[in-house]
Amino acid sequence: MVREYAAVVGKIFAVLLLVGSALLLGRRWRLRQPGLGLVVLLLAFSLSGFSLERRHTEIVSVGASETVDDTLLASGNIVRVEGVINGDLLPFGGTVEVRGTVKGDLVSFAKRIVVSGTVEGNIYNCSNSLDLDGQVNHSLYGLMQSLRLNDRGRVGGGIVVGAGDIALEGEVNRSVNIYVGNADVSGSVGRALSMAGDNLTLTNTARVGGNLSARVRHLRNVHIADGATITGTRDVQVRVRENRFTRPTFYFFSAIWLAAFLLVGWLILLLFPGLSRPALTLWAPDGAASGLGLRSWRECRWR
Amino acid sequence: MILLAITLVGLPASLMLLMAYLAAIYLAKIWVGAFLGQILLKPAGETTSDWMLGLLLGLLILTVVRFVPYLGTLVHFGVVCVGLGAFAWQLYRVSRPAMTT
User: Fold this and answer.
1) Is A218 helix (H, G, I), strand (E, B) or coil?
2) What is the CA radius of gyration of chain B?
3) Mutate which of B1, B3, B30 to test chain A, going by most A C-beta atoms within 10 A?
């Protein structure tokens, strides 16, 4: 659903840009009233036609008997959804609890997210922790410090996640691709399990329906219990950090980089001779150049 | 730049400033490389080939130094600072010729 919105919003902005460009090119009609220009701008950004409902309070709550027919944009310290959201849910806050049903996608930025209800679309998540105790009909994508798919949790699609710690105790219907520090798998993965990171543990109850692929720093960091079921092949490899100086591509791209600098330098010399040649004789009087450079760095950071 | 961006009206100006700043950081290396090359080669004239040869030598030195662990990062930081300052100084002088003579 988010993609559909993005497509429609993109089209509207494209039309606005085209119309605006045509008006400016014609130069026969101008927005003489500044207020009219502001109204046009506000209309462009209001997106009322997309039925976006916004709620912003300390605690945003959608009660168990409540149904939100639109996409809900909720921001607050606590966002709690116990009812039904017929569109997407876009929560931003400290703690997000989804106990009800979200018919669309869940796109969240929060410190802690707990999903014990149902998300019928995808979950796109960027948070400190995500506890999934309910059901996701499609897939889970995100970056987080900690992901926990509890034994009652179920993901209908796949998982593509980068995280510090991942515990998969529940069921994932499709493949799992994780970039992780520590991964503990004791649940079920319908297809392939692919991981890159530090530690991987598959317990006796773990089940992988496809291939297992792991890229780790040390083989001793992979623990696969005897009772774990892996239907496909096992491919566990140790990642070796290759010295970049031994690769020909390194020298190739360095040469291209150098040639690009030379080309730019030559262009500067051609286009701005006054800027380049005297610079070599007037350069850095009394260390002023380094002082100015440091000042520009500092001011850019402050602003 | 951030303040400009927050005002929404200043967002385009902020983006342009950011682009100019990134371009200046890129150009800083060329500035320092050319200066370094000129110091080392000490060309008699100021022909284009002299300038380019100096630039090549300076950039080669900077590129090699850049790959030295720890030292390379420090040198790169110094190059950017000095180059940015020289660029700003020269822009100032070129834009106000009457004041500099």
Assistant:
1) coil
2) 17
3) B30
